[in-house]
Design goal:
Blueprint lengths: L2 E7 L6 H8 L5 E6 L6 H7 L3 E4 L5 H8 L7 E4 L4 E3 L1 H8 L10 E10 L2 E2 L8 E8 L4 E2 L8 E2 L3 E13 L2 H21 L8 H16 L6 H28 L1
Parallel strand pairs: 1-2, 1-4, 2-3, 6-11
Antiparallel strand pairs: 4-8, 5-11, 6-7, 6-8, 9-10
């Protein structure tokens, strides 16, 4: 079975070369949907033999959907530029184990790294994501942030994606802050309305869950830091939603 690799990018010159090299181990083509990067992302992608489509950012889900018509094959491996298949996931695809059963999407476990350190606490592992699907019956949602694959018959498999998303806590905080704004706007557009206690309540619950119930407490300063960052994201998401409500 032939497979299309699909990646959305913006200023990913650090990762895109390695990402394409990894995809070409299991894919017959690689399609890049780029949001007019200002670095060498497009140049590197073309040098690696990828097809580059440029499109102003539409949101996480719509941007991925925009790339689907450019994919020649039904099976889509849709990774981010900082994600790579672990060996068990490569074997799962190369041995065509995905054809066993009538499934149209597969959820892989994600190993999230801070630098080169695996963060396997505070709810960050196992973090399941559907990154492999058949576009005939499954598709990305329309969500602006943290889209999901809408599927008729999904299966979770115990193989892994390696996610090297951040080199520092500063980067995690900056990204979470950006996501919180997008998520708040999405909730607002969906008609979600909250009271003034929601940001504090959800921020507190997120910290307790990550630090105590998800084993952050056993991982020193990093466990405390990740739990606080998760709390920050939950608080800011609803604080920004509350601000949108007041503007309305």
């Amino acid at each position: 079975m032939k497979i299309s690799g699909l990646v959305i990018t913006f200023n990913e010159e650090k990762n895109i070369g390695k990402c394409i090299d990894a995809l070409q181990k299991v894919c017959d083509e690689v399609i890049i949907v780029d949001s007019f990067s200002k670095d060498r992302t497009v140049e590197i992608a073309k040098e690696k033999g990828a097809v580059v489509v440029q499109q102003s950012f539409l949101g996480d889900g719509p941007q991925r959907t925009h790339g689907l018509p450019y994919c020649k094959n039904d099976w889509i491996l849709n990774l981010d530029a900082d994600e790579f298949l672990d060996r068990d996931a490569e074997e799962f695809i190369l041995k065509e184990k995905y054809l066993e059963g009538n499934y149209d999407a597969f959820s892989f476990r994600v190993k999230n790294f801070l630098g080169n350190k695996l963060i396997d606490f505070s709810g960050w592992y196992p973090d399941h994501k559907v990154r492999f699907f058949n576009k005939q019956t499954a598709r990305p949602s329309d969500s602006i942030v943290h889209q999901k694959i809408i599927t008729q018959n999904e299966k979770k498999v115990a193989v892994h994606i390696l996610h090297y998303g951040w080199d520092s806590l500063d980067q995690i905080i900056a990204k979470k802050n950006q996501y919180s704004g997008w998520h708040a706007q999405q909730l607002f557009d969906q008609g979600k309305r909250i009271n003034a206690f929601k940001p504090v309540l959800n921020g507190t619950v997120a910290f307790i869950r990550c630090y105590f119930f998800k084993k952050g407490i056993f991982n020193g300063i990093e466990g405390l830091s990740i739990a606080m960052i998760q709390s920050f994201f939950s608080y800011m998401k609803y604080a920004k939603l509350l601000k949108l409500q007041k503007k309305q």
